[in-house]
Design brief:
Blueprint (H helix, E strand, L loop, with lengths): L11 E7 L3 H12 L2 E4 L9 E6 L2 E7 L10 E7 L3 H10 L3 E9 L3 E7 L5 E7 L14 E8 L2 H12 L2 E3 L5 E4 L3 H8 L3 H8 L8 E7 L10 E7 L3 H10 L3 E9 L2 E7 L5 E7 L9
């Protein structure tokens, strides 16, 4: 289901990266994923926000860093909500911190920037004219979003209160599921549930919206964070190309459950994951 026409509340719907030098980032990601770019900022508005596209359809965005913000390159995860103000209130009540109160992004939508109780930052997105990524789950498009946390039980309480998520423990790792999401996907792509079963997907996997990974006790200095995963046709070729374009290979391509994966820093230091689907790896353990 690579092309989307919307997202129900509780599903990650968009990613963007803030970069000290957006022009350099356009060169890197255009060369790596073959993205085309369209500047979404009105003339004279100031700032930069370039929509990355595949086949003329939005997949992500590259923007500058707002004045006064740390000059750190990052990738950001956005989660769809029906009401950004209500989501921010739920997050605060559940022990999170609202870093940026809900605000309108022109006519595109309304958003807020939130940190969970472990300080992992994400955004909520109430769609108006822009619902999010129009292409997913193919080469150069978002494939997954992952939370790394020091306290999985605390995270389950928080994200359950804000989005209704639950944790599904699997041999391949723990997943966030949104009850009923599979029914929505099945209505959009009849037969999807059966296809997933034929491929050997575990029970409940059709409801998966993201994953959660505990940060090891001996790695306590690593901050809790959300990470962005892009689908690729060939993880080894993607890592080689990223290095050629000035990126840094944080984790060399390696086999994992259902995938072959590599972790990359772009030239300005924003970390992302490239994920190649490998059905033969289905029985590997996390």
């Amino acid at each position: 289901m690579p092309e989307r026409d919307g997202y129900i509340p509780g599903v990650p719907c968009w990613v963007d990266t803030q970069q000290p030098d957006p022009a350099a980032a356009l060169s890197f990601y255009g060369g790596l994923f073959g993205w085309d770019f369209v500047n979404a900022m009105p003339e004279g508005a100031g700032g930069e926000y370039h929509m990355a596209q595949i086949r003329g359809r939005d997949v992500a965005a590259v923007g500058g860093i707002p004045d006064g913000a740390p000059r750190t390159a990052t990738w950001n995860t956005y989660i769809a909500v029906a009401d950004a103000d209500e989501a921010a209130a739920k997050a605060r009540a559940a022990g999170g911190t609202v870093y940026m109160e809900p605000f309108d992004v022109m006519d595109a939508g309304r958003m807020a920037v939130i940190a969970d109780p472990d300080a992992a930052v994400f955004c909520v997105w109430q769609a108006k004219e822009n619902f999010g990524a129009k292409v997913v789950n193919e080469h150069g498009a978002v494939n997954f979003n992952r939370l790394a946390t020091h306290d999985v039980e605390q995270a389950e309480r928080f994200y359950g209160a804000v989005f209704g998520w639950r944790i599904l423990p699997l041999d391949s790792g723990s997943m966030w599921v949104l009850p009923g999401y599979g029914d929505h996907l099945e209505s959009k792509s009849p037969g999807l549930r059966e296809q997933m079963g034929q491929m050997g997907a575990p029970d409940g996997f059709i409801d998966v919206v993201a994953s959660v990974t505990p940060i090891a006790a001996d790695d306590a200095g690593t901050p809790a964070h959300w990470s962005v995963v892009f689908g690729v046709d060939d993880a080894d070729a993607t890592a080689a190309k990223a290095a050629e374009l000035g990126g840094k290979i944080v984790e060399a391509p390696h086999d994992a459950p259902w995938t072959r994966v590599t972790v990359i820093d772009d030239p300005q230091g924003a970390t992302f994951v490239a994920n190649q689907f490998v059905a033969e790896n289905r029985d590997l353990k996390a």
